[in-house]
Amino acid sequence: MAAESEMATFTAQGRGRISSSGGAKWRGAHFFGTSTNGRLTFLNNVIGLFEGEMDAEGIDTTKIW
Fold it and tell me: For residue range 5-38, what is the model confidence (pLDDT) as tens digits?
């Protein structure tokens, strides 16, 4: 039996600012969805609010609620 795979996708919208040190901070929302009827179906129409930060060296941290 072949292994079944699923894929979920998201789009995001947000606003942010570049800091004087070369980093950036932003906030917004992720909109999740999937085209399958399997285990990831619960992600359909889920919205996650996020807050992200990147330092001047490109290290990115994002939290999603």
Answer: 899 999 999 999 999 999 999 999 999 999 888 8
Q: What angle do CA 34, 28, 11 make, to 5 degrees?
A: 25
Question: CB-based contacts of 3: which residues, under 8 Å, 6+ apart?
Answer: none
Domain positions in the chain: 9-64
Can you give the chain as a three-state secondary structure string?
CCCCCCCEEEEEEEEEEECCCCCEEEEEEEEEEECCCCHHHHHCCCEEEEEEEECCCCCEEEEEC
C-alpha distance across the termini of the chain, in Å: 37
